[in-house]
Amino acid sequence: MAALFFSRAVLSVSMIAFVAFSFFHTGIKRQLFHFISSPLLWGMSLLFFIPFLSGLWSGDKKEWAEIVLIKLPLLMLPLAFAAPSGSNWNQLQKKQWERLGYFFILLVTAATCWCMFHYLSNATEINESYLQAKSIVTPLENDHVRFSWLVSVGILLAGWFCIVNRKENKLFSSLFAFVALWLIIFLHILAARTGLISFYIMAIGSVGWFFLKKPGSVSIAWYYRLSIIMAIIVLPFVAYKVIPTFQNRVKYILYDKEFFRKAHYLPGSTDGVRIISIKAGWAMMQEQPATGTGFGDVLIKAKKWYRENYPQMIEADKILPSSEWMIYGAGCGWPGFILFSLVMLIPFFIKTSNSFLWWLLNSTAACSFLFDIGLEVQFGVFIYAFTILWWWQWLQPLPVIPIEKESAG
User: Fold this and answer.
1) Helices 378-394 and 61-71 meet at what angle, rounded to 10?
2) Is 293:301 a contact under the CB 8 Å cutoff?
3) Phi, psi of 216 (to 5 degrees)
4) Is the pLDDT assigned to residue 64 strictly greater than 90?
5) pLDDT of 409 strictly over 70
6) Is the CB of residue 371 less than 8 Å from the CB of residue 322?
7) Interval 224-252 mean pLDDT
8) Is the pTM of this model over 0.70?
């Protein structure tokens, strides 16, 4: 997890070591059986096998091989997390998984402070750059989209730890509240739409949970609930007034909305180009509905479609379809599109000890793939697979221990 923020090479090495270590036991057969019997694990592996099988009809084998290599963690990490109970790291207790959450929050918070240092050193120029769809420098080699989603997950974790610790350890709870507040402020300074949309999904979902559920020991007074609702409503308006980057991002979106709405082409128009790219993916899926183009040929066929339909498009804007749904649809036709949809739905049928947190996490992950291709880059593949699987282990239902009846007499 730490390597994610520091080095792509170390991330690869540590992930390989992590997977290898999970097989250092004698219960390999049980591990494979656990993998096959868990819909979440084999479902996630389909995100690897779909592009892997498309190599049979992909013309560009080199491009296909690179794509398969990037997606390999979608197979290896589920296999690693299938390690049977009592083997190596899989015997971690609930508290130990929570400590990983504390470490995650620490990493994300430190990363946001690093971003703010760079922002404050040249705030005026950076503020102006937001009118041209630019962003603050971030970790993950400046991948602000994936980083913003990590920040939103950090907010969810910090908020939850704040709630569950407020009676037993008020100081600890207050610390998490402060961290959550800072991450919310930073997310609006960063103004990356993936993170903001994820945050507001979590915020609205939390309001619904507070009002519609009876969370047992996690009870929230009515005035706190009302305060949360008011804060969610007021927050974007306050951010627009006081945060220059957020304000300029909104101005750029409003400027770009006509190109977005009509899918007109304007060089450098991020939203307009994304919609055009999704149209390209849809057209490719309709052209070969049964098999798709093969993952190795998606970009080649997309560029061909751009030349035919938008001959004025500059080379830099000829991108992959900006939606994972369309990537899998273009690469493997309607079967790929449908299977990807099913994989995104599987987590919502998995039983956990905290459906509230689990559903919010998976809702934001699935929504982020609507207009993003996070599974086509190393950071995105690792972040999605590791975070989902880590939370799955953390939120495993506690085993029910039967109470033996006392014998008569």
Assistant:
1) 30
2) yes
3) 70, -115
4) yes
5) no
6) yes
7) 87
8) yes
